[in-house]
Design brief:
Length: 152
Amino acid sequence: MIKLSNLADYAVLLMSTIATRPDELHTAASLNRETKVPLPTVSKILGKVAKADLLNSNRGVGGGFSLNLDKENISVADIIEAVDGPVQLTNCLGEEDTNCDYVPVCTTRGKWDKINTAVYQALNNVPLSEMVPNKYDFFPKEETDVINLKEG
């Protein structure tokens, strides 16, 4: 099973929550109340995502975090990489030496890069805007729709 880390999963949830109101300041406490992600985890994720320049951090009384509007094309891959580092399906895809005992006999090592690239591209092609909950589409959009519903 290929699975995101809990931090990555929570980071996408937190960023989606922030993106529903991108112009507002969001505190760790308010995000904790809204998402039920544990407060220490929220704080840790916000720090990492702000360090990756996906959020703006405003310190002091009345401070909080807001979406970095200069980063209008934030992808799910950007968020995952902010908290977990590069998308890497196997240890041998990293830049560091893995000390793998099977390197001399591994016939698949060179093949994983193609799969890793496909997964990364899939994550990179999903913008944060697609992760934001939409308003319910069964509510009338205009006053004329309300009148039509009453008459119908």
